[in-house]
Amino acid sequence: MSTSLLGYLHYYGPILAKIALIPIFYFVLLPRFRPSFPPGPRPLPGIGNIHQIPNKCPEETFAQWGKEYGNVVHIRVFGSSMVILNSIQVAQDLFDKRGAIYSDRPRFVLLNELMGWHNASTHVRYGPRFRKHRRFIHQTFNEQAAHLLRPLQGKETLNLIRGFVETPGQYSQHIRRFAAATIMKVTYGRDVTSIDDPFVLLAERAGSLTVQSGTPAASLVDFFPVMKYLPDWAPMAGFKRSARVVKEAVDDMMNIRFQMVKDQVSSGTAPPCMTSRLLESFGKSITFEDEENVKGVAGTMYVAAEDTTACVLASFVLAMVLHPQVLRKAQQEMDQVVGIDKLPTLEDRDRLPFLECVLKEVLRWNPPVPLGMPHRLMVDDLYEGYYIPKDTMVLANLFAILHDCSDPNSFRPERFLTEDLVDPLGVVFGFGRRRCPGRYFADAGVWLVMANLVACIDITKARDENGAEVTPEVAFKTGFVRHPKSFPCEIKPRSAAIEAVINFALANPRN
């Protein structure tokens, strides 16, 4: 060995040895001193647990993992951490008590980059812009403001009941029209008078295509962002072609209505609504970013409110078809408290405890957003001795939380009178700083429809050509929102006078 080489090793050898020890320390020694991840199913090298996450109803698999591994379950998805919370206590500990670090949203490449949803309020990262969006929404949907929207909800509820009476075979379309009409009027100032309203159909198409494209966390591009640069003709670029179709539908839904209100504001003919009020608040100094924020807030509130409201009401109808004894009991309470010649209003709510139990049981039986909206941890955290790394996607499994009771698949509203249960109304709207700001409006609208359906409508099983009853399958579509699959039923007014009562109420609205 030459003298120069010996000198080189003598001088640089210790440095090279230290450098060589870095990966040993990082990959071998450090994990031994760092607290362990929460328990979960064993991942495979490279892909993690992605092969164990089902495409349909993953909330049910996650709930099973909760029983096996505990209320905090850790999984790996292509090197990224995901934590699933399966109890109310853990969700409150992290999202409520530690909201300052658990209130961010994951950055979904497919939705944010390809679909153009980077301005939608549900996907805004936690920070000043998020707080601005929440302030916009709070002005329209806080508890006091929501009270002022009750006349609108009352009117549209009556239109829904009339639709059930006149064309009962289109009950699902009437539910969609109600859900769209209330939020469309609030956000864009536009009346929806038909189940074939073009803007409603446009929103439904955007929502359906979004669900069909798959949940964002299930898309490979979210874990390998470089895939967004694949050319369209590449073998694994199908997601880009699908995303463009979805983006076009979403853009149409968000842009057309926003532009119409913007033009009305410019001409001084804008109806009072959230979009016009926000645009007018900026005045002539409004910037492009301001407009994009207003557009995102209005579009997101419309989609979220319409889809979840329709889901809950369809679940209620399905439950009444399957459990006629529950409907009869609710009708008996309604007749005794409100009477048979009057329609219920929100002022009657406290006097109808069984109906309140029915509403809670509908939400417990089929929570509309079973996994909630995902959160992102902003810094490393320790919980119950377990290590949760920064950037972990954290999901509250609302399905598991609300099904943690005796005989969870049975529909039994009475359970809320006799058992100490988690209140679904305190869960389905989310947790902490990301809790749904439209919860007062949504809760009032759903209750009002359920109450008036109970008072006015008989809902029973449909019959086939031989006169035999057809029992619907209890089945739900997969996606962010867990809609019941289409089912047949028979709908009739409880009396011949119902239509006259509805017409009188519409002609003499209560303030």
UniProtKB/TrEMBL annotation:
Cofactor(s) listed in the protein's UniProt record: heme
Entry keyword set: Heme, Iron, Membrane, Metal-binding, Monooxygenase, Oxidoreductase, Transmembrane, Transmembrane helix
Chain segments annotated as transmembrane: 12-30
Pfam families: p450
CDD domains: CYP64-like (cd11065)
Pathway assigned to this chain's UniProt record: Secondary metabolite biosynthesis
Superkingdom field: Eukaryota
Keyword Transcription regulation: no
Gene3D superfamilies documented for this protein: Cytochrome P450 (1.10.630.10)
Molecular function GO terms recorded: heme binding; iron ion binding; monooxygenase activity; oxidoreductase activity, acting on paired donors, with incorporation or reduction of molecular oxygen
Record flagged with keyword Disulfide bond: no
InterPro entries on file: Cyt_P450, Cyt_P450_CS, Cyt_P450_E_grp-I, Cyt_P450_sf, Cytochrome_P450_fung
Residues annotated for heme binding in this entry: C436
Family stated for the protein in its record: Belongs to the cytochrome P450 family.
Descriptive protein name: Cytochrome P450
